[in-house]
Amino acid sequence: MDRYAVIGNPVAHSKSPLIHATFARQTGQSMTYEALLAPLDGFAATVARFRDAGGCGLNVTVPFKLEAHALTQRHTPRAAAAGAANTLMFDARGILADNTDGVGLVRDLTHNLATPLAERRILLLGAGGAARGALLPLLEQQPSRLTIANRTLAKADTLAGLFREPASHHGVALAASDFAALAGCEFDIIINATAASLSGQIPDLPSALYANAALAYDMMYAPADTPFMATARRHGAGRVADGLGMLVEQAAESFFVWRGVRPDTRPVLASLRDWSAGG
Ligand code: ATR
Predict the structure, then answer these.
(1) How far is the CA of 62 from the centre of ligand 1 (A)?
(2) What is the CATH number of domain 2-99+245-276?
(3) How far apart are CA 278 and CA 20, in angstroms?
(4) 39, 218, 222, 261: which has the highest count of C-beta atoms within 10 A?
């Protein structure tokens, strides 16, 4: 059987083994998928061991996505743009690094949440790795405007600078801002790609922004509303959503990259939702 795994530290909590086992059953693929704990200073060695033992590919999670990108010279355009990799594929030529996070986000928004992004005004909160990974796939959807807002303006400026060319290619007005300067602006979709939810915090946004938004989306997920979702709901966002769908969709895209088969994500997302609500 072909072997795959998710590599991280910590990794025991990962839902990826469950998701990929379900995809494999659903599509009749003969494969195994495990969770692989790598020491913080032993990522490359753990990848090499897995590959030498016949492994076919890996998903990469915290904190190794940058190291995964640096492991190889072969990147898909979306991994190159993200500067990070969440998917590795092993072949006769070595390692190919891909990044399916941004596409997973876009597919969750456009398919699962039925929210087209073309001609919409998007506010992307955060300027770290999560925001960077989302940028190219978001720009490809040709929103009318994409504003990157960050607590630290300089980081938003730098990130916007990296994506000027694809933004202009796709006809998107790309801007950088801090949170305070957003007062008086209007956006259709607000995406939280900050790490604020991890510490139970929310980005300090002018609260009027939420009332104008049709959708407030948190890349984090939790059994109940995240603090960002609760705030957006309280201030009148049309709809709020967490990132569980993004998790399932990035997994489906990795599965497709490895196996050439696209699983049906809806039943998997529905059962994860039930499971998460129950436990
Ligand atoms: P990740 O890979 O998850 O994006 P990261 O690269 O460390 O993690 O980036 C974290 C992002 O969350 C940054 O944009 C950070 O803002 P700063 O650049 O100002 O540090 C943002 N962030 C973290 N905690 C936050 C908070 N409490 N409020 C607003 N933004 C926060």
Answers:
(1) 14
(2) 3.40.50.10860
(3) 21
(4) 218
Q: Which of 61, 153, 194 to mutate to test the pocket of ligand 1 (most atoms within 8 A of CB)?
A: 194
The token pair at 44 is: 């490359």
Each domain of the chain, given as residue ranges in start order, spans 2-99+245-276, 102-242
Euclidean distance between CA atoms 86 and 235, whole angstroms = 34
Q: How far is CA 199 from CA 185, 195, 226, 239, 261, in A?
A: 27, 8, 11, 23, 37
Q: Is the CB of 135 under 6 A from ligand 1?
A: no
- Of all protein residues, the one whose alpha carbon is nearest to atom 29 of ligand 1 is 203
pLDDT in tens, 142-156: 999 999 999 999 999
- In whole angstroms, how far apart are CA 264 and each of 26, 101, 261? 8, 17, 10
196 lines ligand 1 (CB under 6 A): yes
Q: Catalytic amino acids?
A: 65
Q: Is the pTM of this model over 0.90?
A: yes
CATH number belonging to the domain at 102-242, selected among 3.40.50.720, 3.40.640.10, 1.10.220.10, 3.20.20.190: 3.40.50.720
